[in-house]
Amino acid sequence: MEIPNNVNASLNYIGSKVRLLPFLHSVMSIYIKDFSPLSIADPFAGSGAVVRSFRGKVNSIIANDFEYYSYVLNRAALIPTTPASIWEKLSRLNELLGRRGFIFEEYSEGGKAGRLYFSRENGQKIDAIRQELELWREEKSFSETDYFILLAALLEAADKVANVASVYGAFLKKIKNSAQKSLRLTATKLSPVNTQMTVFQKDAQELVREISGDILYLDPPYNARQYGANYHLLNTIASYKAFTPSGITGLPRYQRSNWCRRQKVEAVFEELIATAQFSYIFLSYNNEGLLPPKKIQSIMEKYGRYTVHSQKYQRFKADKNEARNHKATATEEFLHVLVKN
Ligand SMILES: C[S@@+](CC[C@H](N)C(=O)[O-])C[C@H]1O[C@@H](n2cnc3c(N)ncnc32)[C@H](O)[C@@H]1O
């Protein structure tokens, strides 16, 4: 399967399923012959890689994640088509002169806090673009869709030049080569489709209680790493509200997921499966996850016909020094399937 151009591979996202898309689509096709009249919901959408690959292929899509940066990325990608007005706005933002603001002072080289997440130039560019976007929004000089496309373009561009090993848990001591490149906004031209698309920012439990449909794709976190901590700077750029950053890493207060807690995960998982009003449930879960495969099976098979598929693949671990994605380790990804009673 060819990876469609609306699937965002530029965000270096933990647990991204970009490279597993051919596996996911081929397993789903065993159970479903015609996707076109069906609906799909992805309550843990993250970078949106999976749900975006169904844009134009299904009748309707619901994407959700409880992190705001994910909401922004998915609002930008799950649209009927790219508005023509975007290109001129992108170039105006790219031409802005840098400004000293919250991101420069708290998270950039030369700022008062001394945190090196961005070079001096890029920190000031992020502030300039972010402030301009808020101004345009206040002036109502563009649509909500334009706002989210441009904000998502900023998140993706900032992530490319971030001075981190892979996530935002810490910054590197010296500005690495890729972080010295100038931040530049780009966007993908999306061809028109008829799929109906809705994006939420809710807790998955809450969302699943409120919706129903045909296909439910679940890709919850599988270990203790909280996304809100690992991607805090994307949330800070996206919301752009001043606060007092804490400690050396400059963390804001962040949401904690029950899916990352050993004592809670089994209960939230069973509740989700029990309440889900969907005909097909596909669950991606790693073999090193908090819930062992046998536990997943014992819960899922209570609610219908259960099967499991797996694929070995190379997962890339961040290299602490220079570029990202250097060290490959073999891992096995499971796709648990439940055809509900
Ligand atoms: C494994 S990632 C999903 C990756 C995604 N399929 C992709 O390809 O990019 C898990 C996602 O679940 C989100 N998440 C964690 N707990 C959540 C909750 N309780 N409700 C909704 N989303 C949650 C995280 O923010 C994260 O984006």
What does this structure look like?
This protein has helices at 21-31, 49-52, 68-77, 86-94, 102-107, 120-138, 144-160, 177-180, 204-210, 227-230, 232-239, 262-275, 293-300, and strands at residues 39-42, 60-64, 196-200, 212-218, 277-286, 304-317, 327-340. The protein has two domains: 1-69 and 196-221 and 258-341, Rossmann fold, CATH 3.40.50.150; 83-187 and 222-256, no CATH class. Helix 3 packs across helix 7. By secondary structure, it is α/β, with parallel strands linked by helices. The longest helix is centred in the middle third of the chain and has 19 residues, at 120-138. The radius of gyration is 20 Å and the shape is globular. The model is unreliable at 318-326 (pLDDT under 50). It starts with 20 loop residues before the first helix and ends with a strand. It contains 13 helices and seven strands. A seven-stranded mixed β-sheet has the order 3-2-1-4-5-7-6, sandwiched between helices. It binds S-adenosylmethionine. S-adenosylmethionine (SAM) binds at residues 13, 15-17, 43-44, 46-47, 49-50, 65-67, 70, 203-204, 219-221, 227, 257, 259.
Looking at the overall shape, the CATH architecture of the largest domain is 3-Layer(aba) Sandwich
CA distance, first residue to last residue: 30 Å
**Class derived from helix and strand content:** alpha/beta
Based on the structure, what is the oligomeric state of the protein chains?
Answer: single chain
So what's the CATH class of the largest domain?
Alpha Beta
Bound molecules: S-adenosylmethionine
The name CATH uses for the topology of the largest domain is: Rossmann fold
Strand content range: 15-25%
Helices and strands, in N-to-C order? HEHEHHHHHHEHEHHHEHEE
- For the largest beta sheet, what order do the strands appear in spatially? 3-2-1-4-5-7-6
| Whole-number total of structural domains | 2
Low-confidence runs of at least 5 consecutive residues: 318-326
Helix content: 25-40%
